Amino acid sequence: MVDIHILVGTGAVQLLPGAVCVFEEAQGLPLRRHHNHLESYFYGGLAGSALVVRSVSSVGNYDYIWDFVLHPNGALEGRVHATGYINTAFLSGGEESLLFGNRVGERVLGAVHTHAFHFKLDLDVAGLKNWVVAEDVVFKPVAAPWSPEHQLQRPQLTRQVLGREDLTAFSLGNPLPRYLYLASDQTNVWGHQRGYRIQIHSPLGIHMPLESDMERALSWGRYQLVVTRRKEEESQSSSIYYQNDIWTPTMAFADFINNETLLGEVASSSSCRTWWLGLRPASCISPMLRMSPTL
Ligand SMILES: [Cu+2]
Question: According to the UniProt entry, what is the EC number of this protein (predicted)?
Fold first, then answer.
C-alpha cells in the first residue's frame, strides 16, 4: 500500500492513505512451457506473474479500478474495470421502459449508458526520433512445390511509415493495421528498428451522433486510436469546464488532428508522439491496452 498526496478542489494538500496498491498477480497463462515427445522427451515451464499498480476511483455509485501492469516480457498494460453498483432508473412497467435497458429488479431498470475512457500516453522509444509504423499482411499466390497444379497463398509482410497525423487517426469502425508500433531509429542486432507495439481491446460502438451539439466537446470518442505530435497546448483531450457548458467547448480534441508531420527526422526535444487511446467498457467487459516491445 502506498499513501498519496493529492490537491483537492481547495488547492490544499490532502493525504489519501493506502490510495495505491502494488502487488504481484498470478497470470492465467505460463510465461513459457514446452512438452516435447517427438525425438527426445523433456518438459520445461515457468509460471507467469506480473506486477500490478492499482488505484480505485469511487465516483457516485461506481468504483473504477485502474490497473497498470508490468509484465516480465517487457509489455506494459493499462486496464480499467467498472465495479460498484449499477446505475438504475425506476421501471414504470410500461412496454416502452424496456427500450432503455433491461429489468434488473421488481421496479428497477438497468438503464443503458456508456462508460467511456481516454488514455493519453506520451511515449519515446530509445530516444526522441520515432516513427509510427503499420505492418500488415498481403497474400501472394505461389504454386505448391510438391504439387504445382495447386496454389498456396503465401503471406508477405507490408510495412508503411504513417508520417502525418491524418494517417494516424483511426476512427471507430475502421480497421486498425494488423500490427501498429512506434519505431526508434535505433536498431537491434539484426538491423530491425527497436519499437513498442500498441494493442487495444475495447468494445466498439459510436459514442454519440455527430450531429449532436455536444459531440464536438466529446470528439475524442470518434477514435479508437490517434497518434499526434506532443504539444504543451494539447495536454488534455477534455476540459473540466464541459460540466457547466458542453455546447460551447473551449477546445475540441478533433482539432488536434491537423496533418502535422510525425516523421522522426524533424523531431525536436519536445515532440515525442502522444498516443490517445479510446476505451469503453460494458459492465461485464474490461477494456485494456497493451504495449509490447518488438524485439
Ligand atoms: Cu454504468
Answer: 1.4.3.-
pLDDT at residue 59 greater than cutoff 70: yes
**Most distant CA atoms of the chain, gap in Å:** 78
CA of 77 to the centre of ligand 1 (A): 23
pTM of the model: 0.80
Instruction: Find the 280 Cα to ligand 1 centroid distance in Å.
Output: 11
pLDDT the model gives residue 68: 92
Distance from the CA of 84 to the center of ligand 1, in angstroms? 9
125, with CB counted inside 10 A (0-12, 13-18, 19+), is buried
Give 114 Cα–ligand 1 centroid separation in angstroms: 7
Out of 3.40.50.2300, 2.70.98.20, 3.40.50.10540, 3.40.50.620, the CATH code matching 114-295 is 2.70.98.20
Cβ atoms of 289 and 78 within 8 Å: the answer is yes
Average pLDDT over residues 244-252: 90
For 98-109, the pLDDT digits (tens) are 888 888 889 998
Q: How far is the CA of 109 from the centre of ligand 1 (A)?
A: 12
Give distance in angstroms: CA of 145 to centre of ligand 1: 57
The pLDDT value given to residue 274:
57
Distance, CA 100 to ligand 1 centroid (Å)? 13
| Phi/psi at 175 (5° precision) | -70, 140
Q: What is the pLDDT of residue 138?
A: 95
